[in-house]
């Protein structure tokens, strides 16, 4: 059984938080709420909990970038939708399957027609016109209670041309189910750079579930969401809840705190990992690599501790740190290749985390990429 933690509280100056709340991430939170929904004429789609970015939609065609291992998708086919539909699914688990169910009981079979990359499938399925269809992307091991592992990484930025070395080493790990990425995928978050990052991912044998970093804010608040989906979200896989928070502006939007409280309630009795880009507190203090307001940082860490979070993973600092915040094991893994800090002799790297459902997260393995 997962044990409850006695929180070691970090002092919070409530008045400081209230006075310094600039809501710089408000627009991104609003965009988050709309991710996963789209329409084209009388055709519409809605992904449950916004767990995928809708990259394309037309009569007979749907293109999604998955932001979680499993998806539930509501598709309205429209008056001209009685045809063989093409469902392009990017960033899926290689062994995931797609099922379809038409309201009224019919369950047409979805078949794979092409596999352009290890984590990309193009499915085809015959659907009737004017139908309400539920598509589900399912992983066979989603509810397994056996121990398993996932990888963690952050901060590629300008080193995108060298990231294949990291992916090649990750591909040698048959024990890793997927990668979680805590921000700074790109240099400035332009459409071209986001597309480049997705192209480079095609060599990786496992999907990458990410949140954004401050470098994704260089062009517009919504560009990242068009390609990768929500910056704030939570999903459960194999006994572990994964919650990703947008801290790219060195703060968390007030609306997101409401979502977070709900996710903490959901994850209280299971293992729970929370990840974001900018850490609430700088673990060393030698650079300004933390929240803009220490009062808010304390508020967030206290919230995570009282929510019985088992581990936090951050980026932003281009090195590796292992420490604690209010009794929660914390890791910074900024080893994607961006300008290195080198204060501790750790260069490019990623982490591999053991997950033992019902018991604990960890140990955490530091994997160097020389």
TrEMBL record:
TM ranges: none
Residue ranges of every copy of the Calcineurin-like phosphoesterase domain listed in the record: 149-319
Lineage of the organism: Bacteria, Pseudomonadati, Myxococcota, Polyangia, Polyangiales
UniProt name for this protein: Calcineurin-like phosphoesterase domain-containing protein
GO function term, MF aspect, one: hydrolase activity
Gene3D superfamilies reported for this sequence: 3.60.21.10
Pfam families named among the record's database cross-references: Metallophos
Biological source species: Chondromyces apiculatus DSM 436
């Amino acid at each position: 059984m997962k044990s409850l933690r006695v929180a070691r509280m970090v002092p919070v100056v409530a008045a400081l938080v209230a006075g310094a709340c600039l809501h710089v991430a408000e627009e991104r939170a609003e965009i988050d709420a709309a991710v996963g929904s789209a329409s084209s004429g009388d055709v519409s789609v809605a992904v449950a909990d916004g767990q995928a970015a809708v990259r394309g939609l037309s009569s007979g065609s749907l293109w999604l970038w998955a932001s979680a291992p499993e998806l539930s998708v509501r598709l309205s086919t429209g008056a001209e939708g009685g045809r063989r539909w093409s469902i392009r699914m990017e960033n899926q688990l290689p062994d995931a399957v797609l099922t379809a169910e038409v309201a009224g009981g019919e369950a047409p079979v979805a078949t794979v027609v092409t596999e352009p990359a290890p984590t990309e499938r193009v499915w085809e399925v015959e659907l009737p016109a004017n139908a309400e269809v539920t598509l589900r992307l399912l992983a066979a091991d989603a509810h397994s209670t056996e121990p398993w592992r996932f990888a963690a990484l952050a901060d590629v930025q300008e080193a995108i041309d060298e990231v294949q070395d990291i992916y090649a080493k990750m591909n040698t790990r048959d024990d890793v189910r997927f990668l979680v990425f805590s921000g700074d995928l790109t240099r400035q978050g332009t459409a071209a750079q986001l597309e480049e990052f997705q192209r480079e991912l095609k060599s990786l044998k496992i999907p990458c579930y990410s949140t954004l970093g401050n470098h994704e804010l260089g062009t517009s608040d919504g560009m990242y969401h068009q390609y990768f989906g929500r910056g704030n979200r939570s999903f459960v896989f194999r006994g572990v809840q994964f919650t990703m928070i947008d801290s790219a502006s060195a703060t968390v939007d007030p609306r997101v705190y409401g979502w977070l409280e709900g996710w903490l309630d959901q994850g209280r009795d299971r293992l729970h990992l929370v990840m974001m880009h900018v850490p609430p507190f700088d673990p060393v203090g030698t650079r300004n690599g933390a929240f803009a307001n220490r009062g808010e940082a304390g508020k967030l860490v206290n919230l995570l501790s009282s929510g019985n979070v088992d581990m936090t993973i951050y980026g932003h600092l281009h090195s590796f740190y292992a420490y604690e915040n209010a009794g929660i094991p914390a890791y910074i893994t900024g080893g994607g290749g961006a300008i290195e800090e080198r204060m501790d002799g750790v260069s490019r790297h990623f982490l591999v985390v053991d997950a033992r459902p019902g018991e604990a997260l960890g140990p955490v393995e530091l994997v160097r990429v020389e």
